[in-house]
Design a protein that fits this description.
The complex is a heterodimer of chains A (564) and B (335).
Chain A: H1 2-17, H2 19-47, H3 62-67, H4 113-145, H5 157-189, H6 196-218, H7 233-255, H8 264-284, H9 292-326, H10 333-347, H11 362-374, H12 376-390, H13 403-424, H14 426-432, H15 437-466, H16 472-505, H17 510-547, H18 552-563
Helix pairs in contact in A: 2-13, 4-5, 4-6, 4-15, 4-17, 5-6, 5-7, 5-9, 5-15, 6-7, 7-8, 8-9, 9-10, 9-12, 9-15, 10-11, 10-12, 11-13, 12-13, 13-15, 15-16, 16-17
Chain B: H1 7-36, H2 48-59, H3 86-89, H4 117-120, H5 124-132, H6 134-137, E1 150-153, E2 162-163, E3 175-178, H7 180-191, H8 226-237, H9 239-242, H10 260-263, H11 268-276, H12 292-295, H13 300-312, H14 323-332
Antiparallel strand pairs in B: 1-3, 2-3
Classes of the chains: A mainly alpha (564), B mainly alpha (335).
């Protein structure tokens, strides 16, 4: 570590003077602070004597509270809680004392059963792809530390890396998104989904694409090196066909809506579906891809895939599920409209910021950098809208198992997106490009934003479909392991990436920068392991929500919901 | 507003805006680029083994860690003589009906850039050994090994390319023979060189030259001076074969530690080897040494630092050669 320290010392003055670096440090402090605050909130809630809950009215656990008896809570004062207890024979076997009971999901009007089944299949398959994709990712992270873990061609690093990225993109995130979208589009239009059969076709096509794609990549058949378009076109065509059917399904459902408004969620989701089809067509049609044409299209494709498909769609889901979970309307429709149009305008032009300083025309690089600055508008508008929707309801966080996921997702939306802006500055690009900083950034966004918001939505919707709650202790374990894992994963990579970039700048021999990265790669593997384990817990929670025992709580919620 | 309630109108508008932006920001620039640039005169299109080797490079996802672009910034001087330009990629077309164009510019530099690996490391023996067991030549490497590009034979047949693998990495009692795939991949790697710009064309500048200590050299310079500088230069230019401990690799690369050529009072022999390459020890199993001073564009002062580092390290105790002497001898060696 001596060389590391020397490098920092040498380059300290210019480094800390760089706006990009300063912005990034501030941005990173935000999720850390929120994480700590959330932890404090949770611990506080666990320590607080029962009855002091501010949202006592919203609690469905009134009976359970009487069961909690904390003699030390009043610290010296005569305890108000009777020492002998008013109620005897309280059953505490099911409750762990230091985990406060969370609000159960409210029973909603019955969901059309075949639709519920369709959605559950999407979410179940997505969970399997998450497990598969991140098991591969975990193994790849280990390979940075133990490069000789195996010598099989099908498992070699270069072949597995796209298997990981494509499985979590097109398998996990995309399937979960479409599944949740069916729920939202039917609900906000107050109609049935246009075609369940089409829904099953999409399901089959998307899964087939990821199965075949993963096998092909491991066998060494790929499209030629562009990130996220490693699947060859016959395989990606299956995926695109599935999405096209889903688009038709969404539009047909919206066309027969019972409301006059098109709810803002539908704007984002339908737009995302239209955009991803466009993006895939542009990326796979051969007419403009000779020489550097390929690279210009690649910059466009990889960034639009992330921003116009995953991000766009997830914003739509958040506009539905966040107000629903907070039981309050979205703060501002107008901010949503502003964010929607500026997202399209700025995001579309920023793709080539992945190729700053390359032989792509300087003018396109500059447009991309300017567009990256413009992204501040939709990101700030969106984040403000969500946080202001939270306003006055932050106390609900400690009583909910979905809201922490939303909050983390929204905070990372702010941090991750603006970090992308900071990375596009030419100077920061100079030291960060080609290093593991980019890998950290993509995980802060695809995981911190997309995956956390997906989990939030899944935990919100599945209990409503099945009437079964996930065990709250394991939801908590899932949340904290994923969050802490992500921070352990990304912060060392960012630090290491920065040091490596500076070392390159200083002309340190390349091989020495490998040794420099070794401890950071180890930390990444450790953080990655935490994330990976949390996915196992998530899968268990899914199992409990779908096939577990129906808990009394949910039924209670149903009666209470009726009473309200 | 009516606009927001009419789903046909609204979604058509959204799609039109996006498609319009797509055409302007992606399709027109891409088309413009592919119509405007032609391959440089003097560039050779990939053919034969090198072309097959590129397919193996693509199939194994090497682009995940290796870029092929020299950016126009000073820190990228290590990887090429000039920044890459659009014409360098102009000859790359769609691979076949199933596969897209592979410019392989890459987005991660976990391993070194390969734009000019064919000139930086022209030894096929090194590449074969490195592919079979990367850590046998670069102990700090985290590159995957590619043993499936090789086969182990108890007795190599005539015409087989035998790879002399040093002890801990070699299979017991068996010989490692390169399969055609390994030879093709190496042919591809050796074909990766920067085509010189046509006479009279000014090369684009490297930017940010003053950002750090990296002012002059095409190959990596060190940050310090004197012997420390020599160690850095040695690591960047010589260590891949002769190793950090100067002992080389048995059967592949000769030791510099205790070498009479290195410690000779007259440095003209070692300087000649650096500038012209060396083939005299092929009978002992050591492959040809490339003229590394020429391929890596080393300056006289860099070579001065390197040979003095070699003459003073690992127990070598030869006199320090002054820069003037090195410059004088180098001037006498016609490149």
């Amino acid at each position: 570590m001596f060389s590391t320290a020397t490098i920092v010392a040498q380059s300290a003055p210019p480094l800390w003077g760089q706006p990009g670096i300063v912005i990034t440090c501030i941005l990173l402090a935000i999720p850390l602070a929120v994480g700590l605050w959330l932890l404090g909130l949770k611990l506080g809630a666990a320590r607080r004597p029962p009855g002091s809950e501010r949202n006592a009215s919203g609690s469905s656990n009134g009976a359970g509270m009487l069961a909690v008896d904390e003699p030390h809570s009043a610290a010296g004062e005569p305890s108000m809680a009777p020492s002998s207890g008013l109620i005897r024979n309280v059953d505490q076997s099911g409750a762990i004392r230091f985990i406060p009971a969370k609000k159960a999901a409210l029973r909603r009007p019955e969901i059309h059963r075949p639709l519920a089944r369709l959605i559950l299949w999407y979410l179940g398959a997505a969970t399997l792809w998450l497990l598969f994709g991140t098991t591969i990712g975990e193994y790849l992270g280990i390979k940075f530390v133990v490069p000789d873990a195996d010598h099989l061609s099908w498992l070699s690093f270069g072949r597995l890396r796209p298997v990981h990225t494509n499985a979590v993109f097109w398998g996990w995130a995309s399937l979960a998104m479409i599944g949740l979208g069916y729920y939202v589009v039917a609900r906000v239009g107050n109609v049935q989904l246009a075609s369940l059969k089409a829904g099953w076709w999409t399901f089959g096509l998307m899964n087939a694409a990821v199965v075949l794609g993963s096998i092909a990549l491991m066998a060494g058949i790929n499209n030629g090196g562009g990130e996220y378009r490693e699947y060859v076109w016959p395989i990606m065509l299956l995926f695109a066909a599935g999405i096209a059917i889903a688009l038709w399904n969404f539009l047909a459902t919206i066309a027969r809506r019972q409301t006059s408004e098109i709810y803002i969620s539908n704007w984002y989701m339908v737009a995302a579906l239209m955009f991803v089809i466009t993006i895939v067509l542009v990326a796979y049609l051969p007419f403009w891809q000779d020489g550097l044409g390929e690279t210009i299209i690649q910059g466009y494709y990889m960034h639009q895939g992330v921003g116009m498909w995953f991000m766009m769609y997830l914003l739509g889901l958040t506009y539905y599920f966040l107000p629903q979970q907070l039981n309050t309307p979205i703060f501002s429709y107008s901010l949503g409209i502003l964010a929607f149009w500026t997202q399209i305008l700025f995001y579309t032009v920023i793709g080539t910021h992945h190729f700053v300083f390359s032989s792509i025309p300087w003018s396109i690089q500059t447009v991309a950098i300017v567009g990256s600055m413009g992204m501040v508008i939709p990101v700030v508008a969106g984040t403000a809208n969500f946080l202001l929707t939270f306003r006055g309801a932050f106390h609900k966080l400690s009583g909910s198992y979905t809201l922490p996921f939303f909050l983390v997702g929204v905070v990372f939306y702010f941090t991750g997106s603006l970090q992308g802006t900071a990375e596009a500055f030419r100077w920061t690009n100079l030291i960060w490009h080609f290093t593991d900083f980019t890998v950290a950034h993509s995980h802060l966004t695809m995981y911190g934003i997309i995956t956390f918001l997906l989990w939030a939505s899944i935990y919100a919707v599945v209990p409503r479909l099945t009437g079964r709650e996930p065990p709250q202790a394991t939801v908590g374990a899932h949340f904290w392991m994923a969050l802490i894992g992500l921070l352990f994963y990304s912060i060392p990579l960012m630090l290491g990436g920065t040091l490596r970039g500076i070392a390159w700048l200083d002309g340190v021999p390349f091989v020495d920068t490998l040794t420099l990265m070794a401890p950071f790669w180890l930390w990444r593997a450790i953080g990655g392991t935490l994330m990976w384990l949390s996915h196992g817990i998530f899968a268990y929670n899914m199992y409990k929500m779908i096939a577990g025992r129906v808990r009394d709580v949910a039924i209670q919620g149903a009666t209470e919901g009726a009473a309200n | 507003m009516k606009f927001y309630r009419n789903h046909r109108l609204f979604f058509s508008a959204v799609a039109s805006l996006f498609i319009f932006l797509t055409v302007v920001i992606a399709i027109i620039p891409a088309l413009h680029n592919q119509l405007s640039y032609a391959p440089l005169p003097g560039s050779e299109p990939l053919a034969g083994d090198a072309l097959k080797g590129k397919a193996i490079f693509v199939a194994n996802g090497c682009v995940a860690c290796h870029t092929q672009q020299v950016r126009n910034i000073a820190m990228d001087r290590t990887w090429g003589n000039r920044p890459s330009i659009a014409a360098d990629y102009a000859g790359i077309r769609r691979t076949d009906i199933w596969r897209n164009t592979a410019t392989l510019m890459g987005t991660e530099r976990t391993g070194p850039d390969l734009t000019s690996i064919g000139s930086r490391q022209p030894s096929d023996v090194w590449h074969l050994l490195h592919l079979y067991a990367p850590r046998s030549v670069v102990p700090a490497s985290i590159m995957p090994a590619y043993p499936w590009l090789f086969e182990e034979k108890s007795q190599a047949a005539p015409g087989d390319t035998v790879v002399n693998v040093p002890p801990p990495f070699a299979p017991a009692d068996r010989q490692v023979v390169a399969r055609p795939e390994a030879l093709q991949l190496v042919a591809y790697l050796l074909s990766l060189k920067q085509t010189p710009l046509p006479d009279g064309t000014a090369s684009p500048d490297f930017l940010y030259a003053g950002t750090a200590g990296n002012e002059t050299a095409p190959a990596a310079t060190g940050t310090g001076t004197g012997i420390a500088d020599g160690a850095t230069l040695y690591a960047a230019n010589c260590q891949a074969c002769h190793q950090a401990n100067g002992e080389g690799l048995k059967g592949a690369f000769p030791p510099l530690k205790g070498s009479p050529i290195v410690t000779d009072d007259d440095p003209s022999r070692i300087l000649t080897i650096i500038m012209k390459g060396y083939t005299s020890r092929e009978k002992e199993g050591y492959p040809a040494m490339p003229p590394i001073g020429v391929t890596n564009k080393l300056t006289p002062s860099q070579i001065h630092s390197i040979i003095n580092h070699e003459r003073k390290s690992w127990g070598n105790q030869a006199r320090e050669v002054p820069l003037e002497e090195v410059t004088k001898i180098l001037a006498g060696i016609a490149p």
